[in-house]
Amino acid sequence: MRLSLDTLPHLPKDVRIPSYSRADLRAGMVHIGLGNFHRAHQAWYVHRLMDQGLALDWAICGAGVRPADAAQRDKMLEQDCLTTLIELDPAGKSAEVIGSMVDFTPVEPENGALIAKMAESAIKIVAMTVTEGGYYQNAQGDLDVAHADIVHDVARPDTPKTAFGAIIAALKLRRDSGAGPFTCLSCDNLQGNGDILHQTVVGLARLSDPDLASWIDTNVTFPNSMVDCIAAATGPNELELVRSFGIDDAVPVTHENFRQWVIEDKFCAGRPDWDKVGATFTDDVHAFEAMKLRLLNAGHQIIATPGELLSVETISGTMAHPLIKGLLHKIAVEEIVPHVAAVPGMTPLAYLDLIETRFANPEIRDTIRRVAFDGSSRHAGFLHPILRDALAAGTPINGLALIEALWARMCAGTREDGTTIDPNDPHWDTLTAQAIIAKNTPISWIQQKQFYGNLSQNKRFADAFQNALNSVWEKGATSTIQNYIE
C-alpha cells in the first residue's frame, strides 16, 4: 500500500502508526539535511513526544541546499512527508511510521524559500545534519575563508549558496522584524559540534556584516550535542524489506535497536522535552561525545579501512573477520581507552563492549563504502585527535599509525585482490596521486598538512607510520595486521 496520510489507517496492524493527527501539528523547527540519520534519530524523538500529546507545535519542516536534496523533497512530499522506520533487532524486525515532519521547503540555488521559512517567528530551532566535512573548516580548524562557497556568500549575503549563509540571512530578517533569534542545533558527528557551528555562522557573518555577527553572537545559542544511531543507506534490499511489511515507501529507513542523544540545555527560544522520550540534557556533553567519537566513530574507521582493502562488504562482516575484529579490540583497549573518561553509568570498556555488539548486528547491512566515505574528514576528525593525545602522553600509537597506513594504501585505489576501489572521498584525486607517491616515499603521505597538520613532524608517529606503510605494501595488509595483533 502506497504510504500517505490517506492510507495510514489501513496499513497492516503490526505496523506502529502515529496516534496524533497531523492536522494538529505546527512547524517549530527547520532541519537542513533530510538523510536517513535525521529521520531515524531527531525526527523519531519528536514523533514519540507527539505520541504522548506533547510537542505538537514542534513539527519539522525539512530543507536542503544541494541539488540532490530536491529529489529527496519530491519523494517525501509524494508520501506526505511520512517515513517508515524499520528497526533491525537481531531478535526480530519491526516497522513504525513517523509523522513529525510536515513540509519540505523548495530547494533553490539562492535559498530564498529556506530563508523565508527560517525567518518565520514560529520557527524556534534550526537543526542540521550536513556531515562532518560540511562546516567549511580548514586544516587548522578555522573557517575556510578561501573556499569558493564562502567567498560567494560574503559577496552576496542575501542570495547565499550555503546553509550557513541562509541561516545568517534569516537571522538578519528576524532581527530587523523583531521576531528574535532561534537556536542553531548541529546533529553531526563532531566533537563540540555546537561550537563549530557557532564558529562557522558567526565567522561568516562577520565577513560581511559585523554588527549582525555581534547580534548573533549575543542572542543565538548553539548547543553542543552527541548523537548516535546506526542508520544504513537505503537501496534495493531496504526497499524490498519495507514492502515485506505491506508498505510502498520510496524512502524508508532501516536502523539499529539503539539510540542516544545527549544535548547541552542551551536553547534561546525554547525546546521540546526530548528527555521524556530518552534524550539526556546535560551541561557536560563533552565527556559523552568524546567517548562516542573516540570509540564508535573512530572504531568505524578502524574497521572500514582494512575492510575495504580486504573486500569485506559490511560492518557486521568486519566483525565476523577475526583479524579486523582483533585489530579493533587491540587498538581500542591499548591506544584509545586510556584517553577516554567514564560518563555516568558507563565506563570506556563497557562502552567498547556495547559498540562491538552493535557493529556485529547481522541485521544491519551498513556498507563499508558508506562508513569509509570522506576519510579525509573522518580520519582528521576522529583518529588524529587521539593520536595527538597519545603522542603527548607517551602512550602506544602503533595501531593508530597502522590505520593511517592502511588508509594510504586504500587510497591507492585497489584492493588486495586487485579489484578497483571507486572514488570515495571529495579529495579522491589528490589522495590517490599522493598514495602512489607514498608507496616509495611514505613520509609524503602524512606531510599533507591539509589533512594531518603538523603530525608528520613528530618522529615517533612518522617512524611508526613509515614502518607500517612499508609493511603493508611489501607484506600485505593481512600479514601486517596479524603481526600487529600478535
UniProtKB/TrEMBL annotation:
Listed InterPro entries: 6-PGluconate_DH-like_C_sf (IPR008927), 6PGD_dom2 (IPR013328), Mannitol_DH (IPR000669), Mannitol_DH/Oxidoreductase (IPR050988), Mannitol_DH_C (IPR013118), Mannitol_DH_N (IPR013131), NAD(P)-bd_dom_sf (IPR036291)
Record-level Gene Ontology MF annotations: mannitol 2-dehydrogenase activity
Keyword list, A-Z: Oxidoreductase
Domain called Mannitol dehydrogenase C-terminal: residue spans: 284-473
Pfam families xrefs: Mannitol_dh, Mannitol_dh_C
Top-tier EC class: oxidoreductase
EC number: 1.1.1.67
Key word Oxidoreductase present: yes
Domain Mannitol dehydrogenase N-terminal: 29-276
Record field: transmembrane: none
Presence of keyword Oxidoreductase: yes
UniProt protein name: Mannitol 2-dehydrogenase
